[in-house]
Amino acid sequence: MQRRIFMGAALGAIALGLTSRRSSAAAPFEVTRTEAEWRAMLTDAQYTVMREEGTERAGSSPLDKNYADGIYHCRGCDLPLYSSKTKFDSGTGWPSFTAPLENAIGTKEDRKFFMLRTECHCRRCGSHLGHIFDDGPAPTGKRHCLNGVSLVFKPA
Q1: pLDDT for residue 6 is more than 80
Q2: Is the pLDDT assigned to residue 3 strictly greater than 60?
Q3: Average pLDDT, stretch 119-125?
Q4: Would you list the domain boundaries of the chain?
Q5: Which of 74, 120, 125, 145 is catalytic?
Q6: Is the peptide bond between 139 and the residue preceding it cis, with omega within 30 degrees of 0?
Q7: How far apart are CA 50 and CA 39, in angstroms?
Q8: Per CATH, which fold does 2-155 belong to?
Q9: 37: exposed, middle or buried (Cβ count in 10 Å: 0-12, 13-18, 19+)
Q10: Is-catalytic flag, 77?
Q11: Is 141 in a helix, a strand, or coil?
């Protein structure tokens, strides 16, 4: 009997995680597009990350090792999101920052995979960027761990 209860709870948790994916009607954003418009402008990998809250493979983004001066913009709507001044090498294989630019991102709870994380997205178009963790360096102690496919780097 206990196994049945455990399996039911596990399946329920998995179902909750799967249904927490962003839907096109999830929130009103300044920049909106149809699914067809998003798919036309993004590669499959970009679409999976930005519109379905996927994650790119660690170490796959050239932006992880980019330390040139400039600004990282949202690939979905070109909103400036992060300055290279706040970028650091977290050793995780994803571009990491201590803080976003003012009024650039939104956040929400992410309870997928049996853990609580803080998801971050572009506040203007809702594109998924990554997650925020409390293990970053000073001055914020935060690590904004981002998917490079969600970003476009513009040199200063």
Answers
A1: no
A2: no
A3: 97
A4: 2-155
A5: 145
A6: yes
A7: 11
A8: 2.170.150
A9: exposed
A10: no
A11: coil
